[in-house]
């Protein structure tokens, strides 16, 4: 009886002791914890070439104290955009901490914007600095803007969203239903940069001028004269670059096309149509609208909703040490533009439309591939993963230097399309 009572008493002492330890640590931790009001949350980072220093760092900072009932039509209602001239990202953040009176926190950063001028000089230093910051999420999107990043962020005006942070999240998601750009995260961009199998690319952003300039029209007319057999460039809505979209709206920024890198330097741009080709080859296309001339009615055009059927088949062979790349693509298409006298779905016309779409995609995909190889020397399609099987050892692969030899590549493209009916009319 005495032993049993002593055991219960000892157990109570042990439990009280552990509770005191837990309570002590929990109370001591509270003194070092920061309140949300002590932090300045940056939802976007902008990097430009500085005028009085090496770098111009811009932050779009959320106003945590702003009322949730504020009007969403004004960007200034929930964020502010400030810039500092500095020698590095770290020193720039210190400047912000100094005059804001709060510590800048980057854990909610949605986009990282590099200006075209800075990207052309090289951004490797900034990539490693950002990758080394534990607050930067790998999911943050990378945007290369055709203006300064400060101007780009000041013009980010969400008209359909109350929060700028949400606005940046959904802007890049347009790639799912247009194919005009690709959602490129910082993690993907940095991985491609350090990879031996492919090069990096990023979202191409710009400020919408709301007008179509004469230079833009000239660029469209001269974009690819070889396509004249299949399409008139001036009638194609997918050959614009970012900031060239002829839109009249309250939206000040847009994302159309891709910025192509060779190592850490920007070397070129892809327009909307070339980006669609990139999305097809890399198996990222969800759906898109493609406009082709009608083989049935002269001077008429067809809008087709195009989807990938299966993952593209890619084969890379080395012929005399030169890459020969074969790409085979299968797509489904539905007709969007239907007129009263349309007769597209009889057997003969259906076959003609499929052949026209095949030729159109084959020519454009091939043009996209030769542009990345001969003009940019940048394998953003990731063909290196398929080429590696031609080498027995890792050292052989590294010695070959794929990212350099890709510029010598030549291509064969085959497209097989299946035309379905319109959605509600002419069902087959």
Summarize the structure.
The chain has helices at residues 2-30, 89-100, 116-121, 124-131, 149-154, 164-171, 186-193, 214-222, 272-281, 347-376, 384-387, 394-400, 402-405; strands at 39-49, 55-62, 79-86, 103-105, 111-115, 141-145, 201-207, 253-262, 265-270, 288-293, 301-308, 313-319, 322-335, 410-420. By secondary structure, it is of the alpha/beta class. The chain has 2 domains: 37-208 and 249-270, no CATH class; 272-428, Nutrient germinant receptor protein C, domain 3 (GMP Synthetase, Chain A, domain 3), CATH 3.30.300.210.
Topology:
Elements (H helix, E strand, L loop, with lengths): L1 H29 L8 E11 L5 E8 L16 E8 L2 H12 L2 E3 L5 E5 H6 L2 H8 L9 E5 L3 H6 L9 H8 L14 H8 L7 E7 L6 H9 L30 E10 L2 E6 L1 H10 L6 E6 L7 E8 L4 E7 L2 E14 L11 H30 L7 H4 L6 H7 L1 H4 L4 E11 L8
Give descriptors for this structure.
alpha/beta; globular; nine-stranded mixed sheet; five-stranded mixed sheet; disordered C terminus; 2 domains; 33% helix; 13 helices; 428 residues; GMP Synthetase, Chain A, domain 3
Report the sheet-strand fraction: 25-35%
Domains, number: 2
Q: Based on helices, strands and strand pairing, what is the structural class? A: alpha/beta
Following the backbone from N to C, one meets helices and strands in this order, namely HEEEHEEHHEHHHEHEEHEEEEHHHHE
Number of strands: 14
Ends apart, CA distance between termini:
90 Å
- Main sheet attributes: strand count, strand direction, barrel closure: 9 strands, mixed
Mean pLDDT: 80
Q: What spatial form do the alpha-carbon principal axes imply? A: globular
Radius of gyration: 27 Å
- Low-pLDDT windows of residues: 66-76, 211-235, 246-250, 424-428
How many distinct helices? Answer: 13
Q: Percent helix among the residues?
A: 25-40%
